[in-house]
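Technical annex, item 7. During the second reporting period the consortium partners agreed on a shared format for inverse folding records so that results from different sites could be compared directly. Each record opens with the tokenized structure and is followed by the designed sequence. A conforming record, contributed by the partner at site C, is shown below for reference.
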């Protein structure tokens, strides 16, 4: 058989067969006096097997290994590994579709793709139009998306956000939007916010979970000057408590 004939027989292109020759997957047959390659039935059987294996998702290197006479791994072993890998992919796709379905079911303006644990916590948060509360929900979503916070840490933070008494603290922070940085309400509000932080939170923070300088600067830029002063004092007090907890 010529290359075009064997290609049509096994359902491959002549280009693919030439590539298999180039990578050493299929030995080039001897040429006839007229210069054409003469392919045998054995070549056709080998190419048919190559096609079936590559259609299953095996790379050419793995196929070459599987088809080797002596040194190659058992084909059954390779196919079992492929089956296990496909099963993992299938489970991953099912989970992604489940999460996608939950997102599609959300009402307009919802938070967006978050973990099930955080979604449940945010759903319990009291309804408020506070811009400061909205910022905190965004920060929780960021922690969740980046993996910065573990489930225990997110749960404690989510509980804090969901506390109805915290809404008043958010509203007090909102009220500082037009205030100067020496406003007398700043220090008491920072202290009250710190007092609302669960003690267990410090133990849940991973050692590498401390906020980096670049993020702090970006965070402060989200607030008006007096509000940023409150947030800065809160973060300083938080870090002091975190370090003290670590020394203890």
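Designed sequence (site C submission):
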């Amino acid at each position: 058989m010529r290359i075009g004939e064997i290609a049509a027989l096994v359902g491959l292109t002549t280009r693919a067969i030439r590539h298999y020759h180039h990578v050493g997957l299929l030995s080039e047959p001897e040429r006839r006096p007229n210069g054409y390659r003469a392919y045998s039935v054995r070549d056709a059987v080998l190419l048919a097997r190559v096609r079936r294996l590559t259609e299953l998702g095996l790379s050419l290197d793995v196929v070459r290994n599987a088809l080797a006479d002596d040194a190659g791994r058992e084909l059954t072993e390779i196919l079992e590994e492929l089956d296990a890998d496909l099963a993992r992919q299938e489970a991953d796709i099912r989970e992604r579709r489940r999460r996608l379905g939950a997102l599609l079911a959300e009402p307009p303006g919802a938070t967006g793709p978050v973990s099930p644990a955080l979604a449940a916590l945010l759903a319990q948060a009291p309804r408020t139009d506070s811009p400061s509360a909205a910022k905190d929900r965004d920060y929780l979503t960021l922690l969740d998306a980046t993996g910065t916070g573990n489930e225990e840490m997110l749960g404690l933070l989510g509980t804090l956000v969901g506390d109805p008494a915290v809404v008043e603290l958010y509203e007090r922070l909102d009220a500082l939007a037009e205030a100067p940085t020496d406003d007398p309400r700043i220090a008491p509000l920072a202290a009250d916010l710190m007092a609302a932080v669960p003690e267990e939170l410090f133990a849940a923070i991973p050692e590498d979970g401390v906020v980096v300088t670049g993020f702090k600067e970006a965070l402060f830029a989200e607030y008006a000057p007096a509000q940023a002063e409150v947030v800065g004092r809160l973060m300083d007090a938080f870090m002091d408590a975190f370090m003290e907890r670590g020394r203890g």
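The chain is about 65% helix and 0% strand. The chain has two domains: 3-73, 109-247. All partners now use this format for quarterly exchanges.
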